[in-house]
Amino acid sequence: MEKPVFTGKFTQQEPIPDAAIAAAVAVMRSGRLHRYNLLPGEEGEVAALEREFAAFTGAGFALAVASGGYAMGCALRALGVGPGDRVLSNGWTLAPVPGAIASVGAEPVFVETTDALTIDLEDLAQKAKASGAGVLLLSHMRGHICDMDRLMDVARAHGLAVIEDCAHTMGAAWRGVPSGRHGVIGCYSTQTYKHMNSGEGGLIVSDDADIMARAVMLSGSYMLFGRHTAGPPIDRFETVKYDTPNVSGRMDHLRAAILRPQLAALQGQIARWNALYRVMEEGLRNSPDLRIIERPPQESIVGSSFQFLLPGWSDARMRALVAACAARGVELKWFGAAEPVAFTSRYDSWRFAPPQRLPRTDAILAGLVDMRLPLTFCEADCRLITGIIRDEVMSMAQQATG
Question: What is the domain count for the chain?
Fold first, then answer.
């Protein structure tokens, strides 16, 4: 009997909504794409997006920028992080997170990962004390949120300012508090594979007026900061407007126009992602050798990707599983590979950071499998995918014991 094969595409996103296309066309017809190229009394698409995103997150202020990576670098600079400083961050994340730290001349200090795929709070406390770091750039990697109440207790105890990387948690929450709203700054991405799609783009939120004044100046506002309707009061710019470098990274009206209708529809999109995620979860639960990541009840997720663990599997078996699933149309990523593949890499690949040893993270990554859940999939697709994964995992397990 021929084995079933999945024929969908793991990198195919939904079309941009018609309302977003119409808004983008209107911007292009105007010829005024730059965020400060406005008619008298006109708010503009970028400022409107910032105002709406501040309301969505409950933040005092919001700033739209060129990418999620730029958002993190801007946040670090706004906190005064510079050459020689140490910044704590997750051992399991994607390269732009430590890259943002390195971009300001600072040194990443990596923290261990738990088997819940979140930052290890005991290791965080130890490394906060040992490193002398004043900032934690916390990555909610692949949408997994740690116990944010405990994390903020650790941060306060060690004098850490927390920047949240929410590239994978736009719309998620811990105990009802939106992701990005526990720390002093929240950073988000609107790159194609994130929760809103403008190709590239990012957003920053904060309640701290002085930090946001520096962020606005850093983003390249020149002396046009008064046009930021979701920015801090004008008087907060007096002490920073001459001393803050222009590191231009503005969002333009075209991308903002594409994003605003997506933001209005985001809660509905989250419900769709989560329905797919739950099908994956139930389809793989109780599979031999395979462990799913049980999500805590305090966490409100955005299930746009799915991860599972194969504890104790050898590198050869992991590679064989990835290849076998690929042959049946299921694109899996393995974070234990020694060499980076496409977007997937691990902390010892980032040679711009000092060499570090994370044995617990190594053990997790050795058996960690990851896959995207684009909204072009339906629940039947996910049932087919889980069936294929179960088949191939069981086949590999039988070969190992036979």
Answer: 2
* Residue 140 contacts residue 169 (beta carbons within 8 Å): yes
Domain termination site, one of 223, 249, 264: 264
219-239 b/e (C-beta count within 10 Å ≥ 16 → b): bbbeeebebbebbbeeebbee
Q: What token pair was written down for 151?
A: 């994390």
From CA 79, how far away is CA 65, in angstroms rounded? 17
- State CA 360 to chain mean position distance: 22
Do 381 and 255 belong to one domain? no
Q: What interhelical angle do 315-327 and 379-401 show, nearest 10?
A: 140
- Give domain status of residue 1, yes or no: no
How far apart CA 346 and CA 51 sit, in angstroms, is 36
Q: Pick the last residue of a domain from 230, 264, 298.
A: 264
pLDDT means over runs of 10, the chain (402 residues): 93 97 98 97 97 98 98 98 98 97 98 98 98 98 98 98 98 98 98 97 98 98 96 96 97 98 98 98 94 97 98 96 97 93 92 96 97 98 98 87 64
Instruction: Determine the Cα angle at 401 with ends 398 and 402, to 5°.
Output: 75
In a domain, 7, yes or no: no
140 exposure class (CB count in 10 Å sphere: 0-12, 13-18, 19+): buried
Q: How far apart are CA 305 and CA 299, in angstroms?
A: 15
Task: List CB contacts of 221: < 8 A, sequence separation 6 or more.
Answer: 36, 227, 228, 250
